[in-house]
Every structure is written in structure tokens, then in C-alpha cells.
Write a structure and sequence with these properties.
By secondary structure, the protein is mostly beta strands. The chain is built from no helices and 11 strands.
Length: 123
């Protein structure tokens, strides 16, 4: 069992920055590939970014590429999402999750999820 707790969300103006954190319980964090997803009201949960267990491979959704940075600190059992140049369309609940299947972009290939943290970007 893995428990994930996201934090760092809030209200920010367009063009601003936020850093989200996802703290994981358990001793096996360094063996997990981790992803960030987001879900806006009335929309499907969508892939944002993913980082492999060692941090050696990273993928981003096209919509955030160049603006968001995913990273991790295995000593702290934490994965981060640094978000810059935020836009109103980035407004959503953001979730971290443990990848269990081969498709890093698909929410169906993740099993453990946090409760989410809300990000609101005002124009």
C-alpha cells in the first residue's frame, strides 16, 4: 500500500509560478515511476508529466512542455512539479500517482493516487 499526499496548490495570477509536492509513504518510493495528472471541472483526467524511478527519463504533455518541470528526491520520498508561466487553462485539480502499466500517458496504467491539490490561475 502506498499513500500519496499532494500539496502546494493555490490561487496564482497568469504568468506566475507554483511548485507542487507529492509525498509518498513507504520504503519503495525509489522503485516507482511517478506521474502527475490534472482534472479540470467537467473534463477527463489528463496526463501532465512523468518521471522514472531514477529520474533518468521524463515525459511531458505538449500543453505544458517548456513551462512545467517534474523532479523527484528519493531520499525524501517526494516528487515535485514546478509550474511556471501559468495560464488560466492550467486551472485544475492536480494529482500524483504511481505508474503500474506501460503507458505512462494513460491514467488507467496508474494505481495509487493522491487526493489532489487545487490550482487556480486567474487571468
Amino acid at each position: 500500500q502506498v499513500q500519496l499526499v499532494e500539496s502546494g496548490g493555490g490561487l496564482v495570477q497568469a504568468g506566475g509560478s507554483l511548485r507542487l509536492s507529492c509525498a509518498a509513504s513507504g520504503r519503495s518510493f525509489s522503485s516507482y515511476d511517478m506521474g502527475w495528472f490534472r482534472q479540470a471541472p467537467g473534463k477527463e483526467r489528463e496526463f501532465v508529466a512523468r518521471i522514472t524511478r531514477s529520474g533518468g527519463a521524463i515525459q511531458y504533455a505538449d500543453s505544458v512542455k517548456g513551462r512545467f518541470t517534474i523532479s523527484r528526491d528519493n531520499a525524501k520520498n517526494t516528487v515535485y512539479l514546478q509550474m511556471s508561466s501559468l495560464k488560466p487553462e492550467d486551472t485544475a485539480d492536480y494529482f500524483c500517482a504511481v505508474q503500474r502499466g506501460p503507458r505512462y500517458f494513460s491514467r488507467y496504467d496508474y494505481n495509487y493516487w493522491g487526493q489532489g491539490t487545487q490550482v487556480t490561475v486567474s487571468s
